[in-house]
Write a structure and sequence with these properties.
about 200 residues; mainly beta; Leucine-rich repeat, LRR (right-handed beta-alpha superhelix); six-stranded mixed β-sheet; four-stranded parallel β-sheet; about 0% helix
């Protein structure tokens, strides 16, 4: 009688990023992470600067390794409805801001968007941000999706770069204090209701 003994080796990998400075993060890849939300239990005003890097842990079986991730995205609806958010500074490592990321942040009055790899503002990114009075769109932006600044009722000044090629419907609808806007010469697609 022959007895065959087989050994199996399983390798488990677990990665985590703890909340830091009131922000929550998710791992995207071995080198990148996204801002996924914020500490909703707080009560203080928030003036947020998104970090370019964040430190997490990766467990290989029983060994822990510290890993530094590059922060490249802000998740869809990450800050949506955050009444405590007053200002947001976004670094040039950010390549994507998800739809409705700052929707209904009614006390958000200062936004600094990055020059660099950010090519588009997704749908409803700043919709219903009623305290926002001015916004400068960086040169890297080529697309403004639909309703991106919808119902920013106190928005008075918008600086659009020459790089803008497409503007979705209702981009600036219900921006009652915005009397005029200079359209870029490179603009080749604009919905007829972008300002209505």
């Amino acid at each position: 009688m022959v007895v065959t003994i087989m050994f199996f080796c399983f390798t488990s990998i677990y990665a985590s990023i703890e909340p830091q400075n009131g922000l929550c993060f998710e791992r995207i890849s071995e080198t990148e992470a996204m801002v996924s939300g914020y500490d909703r239990s707080g009560t203080e005003w928030m003036d947020v600067t998104i970090p370019t890097e964040v430190v997490g842990e990766v467990w290989h079986d029983w060994e822990c390794e510290e890993v530094t991730y590059r922060v490249t995205e802000i998740k869809q609806s990450a800050f949506a409805g955050c009444k405590r958010l007053r200002s947001i500074i976004i670094p040039n490592t950010i390549r994507k801001i998800g739809g409705a990321a700052f929707e209904e942040c009614s006390n958000l009055s200062k936004v600094v968007l990055p020059e660099g790899s950010l090519k588009a503002l997704d749908y409803q990114t700043f919709a219903h941000c009623t305290s926002l009075r001015s916004i400068k769109i960086p040169q890297s932006i080529e697309v403004l999706s639909h309703s991106v600044f919808y119902d920013c009722a106190n928005l008075e000044q918008v600086s659009l770069p020459a790089s803008i090629k497409s503007m979705g419907k209702s981009s600036f609808s219900e921006c009652k204090k915005l009397k005029s806007i200079e359209l870029p010469k490179m603009l080749n697609k604009v919905e007829d209701t972008f300002f209505l």
